[in-house]
UniProtKB/TrEMBL annotation:
Upper lineage: Bacteria, Bacillati, Actinomycetota, Actinomycetes, Kitasatosporales
Source organism: Streptomyces heliomycini
Protein name as it appears in the record: HAD family hydrolase
SUPFAM superfamilies associated with the record: HAD-like (SSF56784)
Keywords, alphabetical: Hydrolase
Any one GO MF annotation of this record: hydrolase activity
Keyword Transcription regulation included in the entry's annotation: no
Classification via InterPro entries: HAD-like_sf (IPR036412), HAD_sf (IPR023214), TPP-like (IPR024197)
Source superkingdom: Bacteria
Amino acid sequence: MTVVVASDLDRTLIYSAAALALTMPDARAPRLLCVEVHESKPLSYMTETAARLLADLGDEAVFVPTTTRTRKQYQRINLPGPPPTYAICANGGHLLVDGVSDRDWHARVLARLADECAPLSEVQDHLLRTADPVWVRKHRVADDLFAYLVVERELLREEWVKELGEWAENRGWTVSLQGRKIYAVPGPLTKSAAMDEVARRTGADLTLAAGDSLLDADLLLAVDRGWRPGHGELADADWTAPAIRALPERGVLAGERILREFLRAVRSPR
């Protein structure tokens, strides 16, 4: 039986120091493994137990890292277990096969974006004109597919985010606020479409997924079974669906729980 497991990474399987949510006494905190270094500094972690579970999962299923990160940002991550044959980057804009972007897939994505939503240049211009320099720290374009801002969250006006979401929706785009980043992503640019392609290529009998943000909702709805942690945009909205299980764990321990759920489903698919 072929099982495809497509999981979001940041704040689902891996966590920055700020997102670990280690609320227990220090002496009882789990041992952590650094899985990402950036500019010579440790950046992302998972528990050592989660690392062992992920290695086991990679041996028993087709594990597909699934992220809104660009290819360059994804390649900084050093996950335990066998190197994944497939990875989904840029929210589905790139399907990596043995680390290389599939040209045919990327061309199909670009064609859909040109046909179905406003161009990136229009959205980027709107962000530059309306975002307040008081709380914006960086403007970024990711792989020429979507845009995002890095902000000072405590200074950000929530009303502006809501207004941006309404403006973007009318142009076929989606807005997602994740930590210190505000993403503006074309509606047709989805993790689920890329995951469906992997399922088709592998002949998957069962598909599983996990994610914490609005940009993961389409992925969760597209699989046979899914999980979300007790933190993030989906938890804040109390979002769920019939085949989705909402887990109570928050922070890095949620990543460990998600991997246990994946393995249980792989080993007892019925």
